[in-house]
Amino acid sequence: MLEATAAHPIVLYDGSCGLCHKSVKWLLRREADGELRYAPLQGDTAAALRARHPTIPTTLESVVLVDGDRVFLRSKVFLQAARHLRAPWRWAYHFRWFPAFVLDLGYRLVARLRYRIWGRADVCDLPSPDKRARFLP
Q1: Under the phi-then-psi rule, with left for phi > 0, alpha for psi from -120 to 50, and beta for the rest, what region is 119?
Q2: What phi-psi label fits residue 8: left (phi over 0), alpha (psi between -120 and 50 degrees) or beta?
Q3: Domain of 93?
Q4: Per-residue pLDDT at 118 exceeds 70
Q5: pTM metric for this prediction
Q6: Coil, strand, or helix at residue 53?
Q7: Residue 57 covered by a domain
Q8: Backbone φ, ψ for residue 50 (5° rounding)
Q9: Is residue 8 predicted with pLDDT exceeding 60?
Q10: What pLDDT shows up at residue 121?
Q11: Does 117 reside within a domain?
Q12: Total domains in the fold of the chain
């Protein structure tokens, strides 16, 4: 399974978080190249990737991007994912050089409040058939 997806960056997100679901939908609408794949942190894909990349957290406080042999956490995920988006969102990729500890201050605050503000995703939105193949278990 992982060999087939190794050519594509994979975004791991909290499958029960309302904000995470909205973020994935936001990325899907703005993607330029259709390269990103998506999988819940609670799923089989994330478990298999954790075996290969021990830096992937077992907790649900961070979104994760696995791109080849590199793993990005928190705010760096969105900066790295930006290179797959249409302009003007693509330009955020140039901020990837900013120190993570600065950018993650805001990320950690939002992560702490996300369930209270956006709630939990009780129902999974079914993506269109052309996008459904980009979701991994």
Answers
A1: left
A2: beta
A3: 2-123
A4: no
A5: 0.84
A6: coil
A7: yes
A8: -60, -35
A9: yes
A10: 66
A11: yes
A12: 1
In a domain, 22, yes or no: yes
Distance separating the N- and C-terminal Cα atoms of the chain = 10
**Torsions phi, psi of 82, nearest 5?**
-60, -30
DSSP 88: T
CATH code at position 109:
3.40.30
Whether cis (ω within 30° of 0) applies to the bond prior to 88 is yes
The DSSP result for 58-83, as a single string, is SSSS--EEEETTEEEETHHHHHHHGG
| 132 part of a folded domain | no
pLDDT tens figures, 54-88: 999 988 778 999 999 999 998 899 999 999 999 99
Q: Model confidence at 113, in pLDDT bands (50, 70, 90)?
A: low
Structure tokens at 102: 């600065």
Q: What is the pLDDT of residues 26-44, one digit of tens each?
A: 999 999 999 999 999 999 9
Q: Where are the alpha helices (DSSP H) in the chain?
A: 2-5, 18-30, 44-52, 75-81, 100-118, 129-132
